Amino acid sequence: MMRGYADLPVVRKTFEEASHILNQDLWALAESGPESAQNMTVNTQPLMLVAGISVYRAWESLGGAEPALLAGHSLGEYTALVASDAISFADALPLVRFRAEAMQQAVPEGTGGIAAILGLKDTQVREVCLEAAQGEVLEAVNFNSPEQVVIAGHKSAVLRGMEAAKVKGAKRAVLLPMSVPSHCSLMREAANQLKQRLQTVILKTPRIPVMHNADLNTHTQPQAIRDAMVQQLYKPVHWVGTIQALAQEGITHIAECAPGKVLAGLNKRIAANLEVMALIDSNTLKQALTVMV
Q1: DSSP H or E run through 53
Q2: Residues 124-149: pLDDT tens digits?
């Protein structure tokens, strides 16, 4: 997933730093997998954090402009907080691994599920969740773009929700390869554990404001940031609202600092007037440097 950045020394150096902190070869995991190991949330979360920070550091090293605002989708919010200097990279890595472990323990493997619903309005997806829950947990958890909403909860309820969504007219309903049902109420116990752990982590006022997923606010006080991080674990990710809030703040250009271009596609559908770029490799990163000044 990081091969396209291999010619940028700061990327490999960041992975080496992270591997030393966690005592695990994260570069090898990113390069070679296996996919089953990459999809385990205890590995996915540290991998995504180090990937995002390595690309952000590459941006900085090549003279990229400092962002006016930062945001991250779900786990990406931790990357944003590191980039803002609200939390150190050394503290964030074990924190996200702890977060992942707490999430996995809260919902044992195979118990939970998560799926993307395409082609229904938010209200329709909420109706699907109410109809298909049948006494289990089933909630809309990621409002990713207009007519793309992720649902999560007990796996059996998610499967029922997928079928109900198709009956209601969804274009697609796709089960996602994630081992925990993030951002739903099944994560409350994990959130309680994260709350306790966060009291031991040093947080500072962000140097660059960070727009939080759960409450669509920026915070300057460390305790308010902790509260937002805890809420994010069991409350929905309001990505549509996040991008709309950035646009309202006057943001005109957005760069996605991670391998892949999923968010760039979502962002364009949310606010068509924004200039969005996905830094998918060193070439696109260098191209973005000429646009985002």
Answers
A1: helix 41-61
A2: 999 999 999 999 999 999 999 999 99
Rounded Cα gap, residues 223 and 220, in angstroms = 9
Q: Report if pTM > 0.85.
A: yes
How far apart CA 79 and CA 64 sit, in angstroms, is 17
Residue 224: both structure tokens together: 């308010």
183 is catalytic: yes
Strand intervals (E) in the chain: 70-71, 112-118, 138-145, 148-154, 172-175, 210-211, 253-256, 275-278
In terms of DSSP bridges, do strands 70-71 and 210-211 run parallel, antiparallel, or are they unpaired?
parallel
Cα separation, 100 vs 107, whole angstroms: 11
Per-residue pLDDT tens digits for 247-267:
999 999 999 997 889 999 999
Is 73 known to be catalytic? no
- For the segment 27-36, what is each residue's pLDDT rounded down to a tens digit? 999 998 888 8
Q: Which of 183, 212, 219, 238 is catalytic?
A: 183
> What sign results for the dihedral spanned by CA atoms 261, 262, 263, 268?
positive
Angstrom CA distances, 184 to 7, 73, 136, 254, stand at 39, 15, 12, 28
- If we measure between CA atoms, which residue out of 123, 141, 137 comes closest to residue 73? 141
* Distance in angstroms (rounded) separating the CA atoms of residues 90 and 145: 33
> Exposed/middle/buried for 41, CB within 10 Å: 0-12, 13-18, 19+?
buried
The answer to whether residues 246 and 69 touch, using CB atoms and an 8 Å cutoff, is yes
Q: Exactly one of 19, 74, 145, 182 is catalytic; name it.
A: 74
Angle subtended by helix axes 239-248 and 262-270, to nearest 10: 60
